[in-house]
Amino acid sequence: MSSSPRHGFSKEPQNAILLVAGHGVTGDAHAGGTVQHRYAKRRQPQAPNLRQVHLLGAELLDELTDRGFRVGPGDLGENVLTEGLDLLKLPAGTRLRLGAGAAVELTGLRTPCVLLDRFQQGLLPALVDRDPDGGLVRRAGVMGVVVVGGQVRPGDAVAVELPPEPHAPLPPV
Question: Is the bond preceding residue 166 a cis peptide, omega within 30 degrees?
Answer without folding.
Answer: yes
